[in-house]
Structures are given as structure tokens and as C-alpha cells.
Predict the structure.
Amino acid sequence: MATKTQPRKRPGTGATGGRRKSCHFCKDKVAEVDYKNVNQLRRYISEKGKIRNRRITGACRRHQRQVAVAVKRAREMALLPYVQGS
């Protein structure tokens, strides 16, 4: 019995989309994420006010940690809200 072998599927392709997003901070060669840059940080916060994870934002591990710290600092300084209005 001769059976045809199907080509192997690569992980990460299919229903999930496939290609990883590249980090915006690495592209722009940003060393530190600034908590005072509120417009930039809003991209990393959901409609409910939660910090989005790396899978959604496409940030690398290092910059995602810096984003989380910057968002928390901006909230503490009342530059960003803790929760969005209902």
C-alpha cells in the first residue's frame, strides 16, 4: 500500500494568522518606554483599561515589561485612568 505523505504544517500558521507582529519599540530603536507619552501607551491598553498582552500588542518581552511599568506609573500620576467609563 503506497500512501502519499502530506507536507508538514508549520506551527503558527492556519486559523491563528501566522506571522508575528514586530515590536514597534525595536523598530524605532527606543531604549526606554516613557510613562509621560500617554498617546503611545493608549495603544497598549484595552477599552476596559486592562494592559494588553504581548500576543496582542506584538511587543517583545523587554519592551512589554517596560510598557506595563510605564502604564502603571502613568496611572499613579493620573495621566491614564485605571478603568474606562461604563
In short: The chain has a mean pLDDT of 86. The helical segments are 24-27, 38-41, 54-57, 61-76. The first helix runs from residue 24 to 27. DSSP finds four helices and no strands in the chain.
